Amino acid sequence: MPKLISRNPANAEIIREFETTPLEDLPKIFDRARTAQMTWRAQTTQVRAEYLIQLRETILNHADEIIYLIAQENGKPRYEAIANEMIPTLDLLTYYSKRSPKLLRDRPIPLTLMKHRKSYLNYWPIGIVAIISPWNYPFFFPFSQIIAAIVTGNAILFKPSELTPCIGLKIQELCNEAGLPPNVLQTLLGDGAVGAAIIKQKPGKIFFTGSVSTGKKIMAASAQHLIPLNLELGGKDAMIVLPDASLDYATSAALWGAFSNSGQVCASTERIFVHERIMGPFLTQLKEKIEILRQGPSSRPENDLGSITSENQKTIYSRQINEAKAKGAEFITGGEFSSNKRFLKPTIITCQQMEELEIYNEETFGPVVTVSSYQSYSEAIEKTNQSKYGLNASIITNNISLGEKIAKQLEVGTVTINEVVYTAGLAETPWGGVKESGFGKTHSEIGLYEFVNIRHIHKPRSRIFIFKSPWWFPYTHFQYISFRQFLEFYRENWINKIRAIPDFLWNFIKFIKEEKRL
Ligand code: NAD
């Protein structure tokens, strides 16, 4: 059986070794999930919401150990493990534990025409959902989807990234300790082969977070069985700095937007567009601020930037940087790896022919940002929208209403004004992109409904309204005439509507009498 080795990316030390999940076990795993889900779905939403409170308490009881593990296996600073992984998870648990019972209640739909009937939406769990996750936010991203799946009554097959299996198993342990019934959540270890094998077993829905290239493979595989998908993919997010922005504010926002989690963020600021009037001072100040950032292993809590988590990313960084150098791009700072190749220095690039560079067009997913100038707002909007991705964008300005006008022209899932990146961690707001950044939402009310099927139930208002509908067979002359008159009620002009009433009533009564429909 292939081994999975978890290593500390800052020094390559082995943390733990695992057996990967045998592919031949998958049918058994699915059977267990199916049985567990039957019992879990029978619980009320209130009971499942109370479980979330228990889970929140369990996480808090293990807080230090979780922070240490995230920093060790992913390489990010410990502070970021608290701020960007623990807090959003606890926040989402709080939000869904409070809101889910109300959100998942039957919801009436007011009917305009059919006053004698009632309609409502009834939410029911999908069944078995597959959650396939990346390594960059190995705690929060999968956990946020697991929480939504649990409270909606699903069983979950969770495959963490092969780079962060310890954190994946920690999520399983926490859920078990909090009292989740056996097999409601099962964690499967392995690489893409295990992910692909999960899809072959036809889960009810796939929640995939990862690269565009894997997203396309997953979509092709799920198309074989018409499995619905939620795809949270990569980005090449833009920041537009307007000429009125405070330089200090704009450069601090750019710094965090581009380099938090060492730029290994789907919503990382990878392209900055600065108004030409302030381009020079913006670059100078951004460079000065980069120079005081401390980069190093997560074991030192004062470091701002941790290590590169994935070996594969190093190949992408080298290729994009070498091409940019060869095409004459100017490296304002960075562009080099540390001597042990575990860190890439924070990098700023400008270039006359920016649009020809891979580093400008394709996701880098690292501590690299391109900076270009623009002359007009329409040019900044056009450059932002030229990307094939559409995850997130930010605007820095003192003119909030102008910022909003620009925001409404950007082809992305989220726009933040005078903020960057962080809304993926807000429980109340939806997260998800457009174009090649994927589709579907997570978090928020909208994200919760991704984990349920929606059943529309339509019934008579009461027993006295049980009669044969006038549009049923057999079709008759008076039925035709009265329905023809009925069309007149859609006219805009009230006089025309009123004029149609006598004819309609006369023919309709004849039709009803003739057919004894009431
Ligand atoms: P990846 O696509 O390489 O892997 C993601 C997961 O898919 C892993 O668990 C992997 O084992 C699995 N996988 C690989 N091949 C598979 C296959 N054929 N079938 C099923 N599963 C398969 O991505 P990564 O390198 O782990 O993560 C980085 C990417 O994730 C970046 O592009 C980043 O932008 C994106 N991301 C997006 C969001 C978002 O919310 N939009 C959040 C985090 C990360």
What does this structure look like?
With about 525 residues, this protein is of the alpha/beta class. The protein has three domains: about 25-235 and about 445-455, Aldehyde Dehydrogenase, Chain A, domain 1, CATH 3.40.605; about 235-430, Aldehyde Dehydrogenase, Chain A, domain 2 (3-Layer(aba) Sandwich); about 470-515. The protein has helices at about 25-40, 45-60, 65-75, 80-105, 140-150, 165-175, 190-200, 210-225, 245-260, 280-290, 310-325, 360, 375-385, 400-405, 445-450, 475-485, 495-515; strands at about 5, 15-20, 105-110, 115-125, 130, 155-160, 185, 205-210, 230, 235-240, 270-275, 330-335, 345-350, 370-375, 390, 390-395, 415, 435, 440, 450-460. The protein has a seven-stranded mixed sheet with strand order 12-13-14-11-10-16-17, with helices on both faces. The chain is globular and about 95 Å long. The model has no long low-confidence stretch (mean pLDDT about 95). Bound molecules: nicotinamide-adenine-dinucleotide. Nicotinamide-adenine-dinucleotide binds near residues 133, 233 and 433.
